[in-house]
Write a structure and sequence with these properties.
Keywords: Membrane, Transmembrane, Transmembrane helix. The chain crosses the membrane at residues 23-45, 51-69, 183-201. This is Fatty acid desaturase. One of its GO terms (molecular function) is oxidoreductase activity, acting on paired donors, with oxidation of a pair of donors resulting in the reduction of molecular oxygen to two molecules of water. InterPro entries: FA_desaturase_dom, Fatty_acid_desaturase. The longest helix has 26 residues, at 48-73. The protein is 62% helix and 1% strand. By secondary structure, the chain is an all-alpha fold. It is built from 16 helices and 2 strands. A two-stranded parallel ribbon has the order 1-2. The chain has one domain (3-312). Helix 2 packs antiparallel against helix 3, helix 7 runs antiparallel to helix 11 (219-232) and helix 8 (146-163) packs across helix 9 (181-202).
Amino acid sequence: MTPGKAFFTSDEIRGLSARSDAWGVWLVIHCWGLILAAAAVFAVWPNPLTFLLAVVVIGSRQLGLAILMHEAAHNALFKTRAINEWVGEWLCGRPIIADLPEYRHYHLTHHRYTQTERDPDLRLSKPFPTTPASLRRKLIRDLTGQTGIKQRAQQIMFAFKMAGEVEGQPSSQDLAQAFSGPVIGRAIIANAVLFAVLWAITGLWWSWFAFWALPLLTWFQAVLRIRNIAEHGAVEFSDDPLRNTRTTRATWLERLLVAPYWVNYHLEHHLVMHVPAHNLPKLHRMMIEKGHGERMQVAPNYLAVLRAASSRPAAAAAA
């Protein structure tokens, strides 16, 4: 049963779940517009500050593409399933080397078994809270590209492994491994197009390496980790939908750099997973108006989340 049915009427859920093609088009244009604009700003005013700004903004919008792919996986980005599939794969997933069908299978399993032993995302949330030193090490590995390089290597090895197997792909793989040889090939096609587009916009042949590969290996990995921590890190290990996930209030800067496209309303997303992202703030307000605010797991900002996720004393970790 959809958890939200315990809190909303069928008419309320129906109203919240209405898809909009106009919203879908706008979100995809907005995401790619910020990516291309960030690269263009550096091309016009090349200096270390605009370079760093481009890497951070583009890495954040790469997370934005992952979120829009997530919307398409729930068939919530557009009204038509076929458009969800095509946009979710070619304009959102494949440029960041992700596969929509495999992600959908994996992600719906997560929804079904949230914060239970059968949750495939449990390995992402169960280590928290950890110590401040451990969290720092994780984020340093992300920002220096160590995590990204490791995951890309896993993808390539997994692709070759699947190409040599007779049996089909395993039923559940995490996002870093859910790839076969053909998927890698389609990702190469998408990135070849992007290589040409970035070169044409900036006039720099190396712009794909600087403004796509570098953000994907660094800032994207860091904000992806922060997103994962905020959603299910250091929450209750239970089946209570108001306590086993978290919504995080976000400032405009956090929405720009860490939490694009209402991804911070994760508790609400778990209540009714097919509600389009732009309706999640309304769903949140309705929950508050219905008197559920005190029970809901809500953080004031992402810094508070990171503090909670790194609140384990070093002495306790060593014991």
